[in-house]
From TrEMBL:
Belongs to the NPH3 family. Residues 343-377, 514-540 are annotated as: Disordered. Gene3D superfamilies: Potassium Channel Kv1.1, Chain A. The keyword Transferase does not apply. Pathway: Protein modification; protein ubiquitination. Residues 362-373, 514-525 have a biased composition (Basic and acidic residues). The keyword Transmembrane does not apply. This is NPH3 domain-containing protein. Keywords: Ubl conjugation pathway.
Amino acid sequence: MKLMKLGARPDTFFTSGPVRSVYTEVATDLEIFVDNCLFRLHKFPLLSKCLLLQALCAESDAVELPGFPGGAEAFEACAKFCYGIAVTVGAHNAVALRCAAARLGMTEAADRGNLGAKLDAFLDSCLLRRWRDALAVLRSTPRHAAACEELGVTSRCVEAVAILATDPGGGSNASASAAAGCSSSLSSPPWWARDLSELGVDLFWRVMVAVKAAGTVKARAIGDALSVYARRWLPNGYLPAEQAGGGGDDANHRLLVEKMASLLPAERNAVSCGFLLKLLKAATVLRASPATKAELTRRAAMQLEDAGVGDLLIPSCAGGETLYDVDAVMAILEELALRHAAAGMPEGSPPPHARGHHRRSRSAESSEFEGARRSTSAAASHGAMVRIGRLVDGFLVEVAKDPNLPLDKLVAIAEAVPDCARPEHDDLYRAVDTYLRVHPEMDKSSRKKLCRVLNCRKLSETASMHAAQNELLPLRVVVQVLFFENARAAAALSAPTVANRVAGVKALLAKTRREADGGEDEHRLRGLAAGAPGGGGEDWSVEGLKRAASRISTLRMKLEEEDDDDADDEAFVHRARPGLVRSASSRVRALCAIPAGKPKRMLSRLWPSSRSIAASERH
């Protein structure tokens, strides 16, 4: 720590109870009250350097200085300077002495080489050029905030600290901890982050604004510094635990969150999505300004695919009807949808060059490069949306456990995710099942409304087996699950048989080329091509498969749903359910076991009239 010594005379001040005076042969002729302490001094040395005392002593020899900066200690140091007694100045008392000198009017107008000018020179040439000293001076300014702002001390300190933080070459002036931090890994916070985390929120905000304005610090380093500061001052991983503190603490924390939101770098990955959602959680609990929550929501939507389910579990404000703030999550998803709409290309869509011709660039090489870049970008975008779909479904599983969660909010969040983001619906089915079990009082129409978010085609075999035996699901959904599971089993059964037939055809073709007298094989080949049975009583030709598909299509006619169909549906369900645990061929037979009374009416509700068999096979 750098020190400056002013004056050379030995210290002759003494204390007697509440009175402080100086040993001298000349009697004192001035009394000054400072901070409940009486100073008995001489007019001449003090008035020659203090404009304030010159004005006050013109009327009386006894004056009082209420609210003196630095109290009695600072006034005594100023008095000693007037007497020429040695005074030591360092980072610990420079600000108090500078404010005291300003209060007494110890300027160049009173005397050349006065205390105020000497302190300014010491600050600028020594203290504010060294990291540790500059931080110590900056931390002492809040105790004399008004005077420091008026004198410009605070702004000078902020600027000095920002310059030292953004100048790696100033390592010789940095503290030992800073030097150690410089040699750490690139993924760690910058060396100055921990030191700045000791500052108050206002000073930290001003320093970080200056650091960002310098433009020499990477956005990731700024984001790491923000994260270090938040961990230092926001409790319990950014609040909850009975909403931490209360009263004045809440006001300070609210200010901190709002300042942090305003400091976020513009770059996308400067801070993690988990950090953003923690700040949003704190902003919600502390009732931060709408602008703060809107900014955090916007930033979280930019990188939502990197979040975890726990990050989205934002507690509701006091008095909220739900356990978690689902409205905040819905706002994030709406912001995400707006961003995708503004981008002009929906997530999960094919790469731009695959959707049609585009204008050629200057060369074929640049065109190919641009196409490859767009393909990579589209693939990465689709992967991000799939991760978001899994994230939202995991969130729905958790919030579905809340007995106070309205059905409309659950459905709205489920439908906010585009279909391309859900290659499978197992997690969404878990959320639906959880909600049904937590809300057993739901009527039939509400259960149907909830289950409309499910696509039974995208359920895995395990989920389908569970759904087929789930008594809480509407009967219509169970029938759909059974139908698609049996169709999947039929496809799995037929695929290897058709492949074997094709292999046999290829073998026979090769044989006919090698043998001129292959009349019998040629006859067999033509028989297979014409759709003749292969010997097992089954027609696996192309025409045979088409005829089978045609017969299935007759089951997909559009009929109105009637309540009296429930009995027939129940019979089909109870008959088809055991088929899920049998072999694939047994599941096909279960499909054929549809009651003879109303087979069309049974499955017609599974297929909208606008959907054809060809479309279903393509999916």
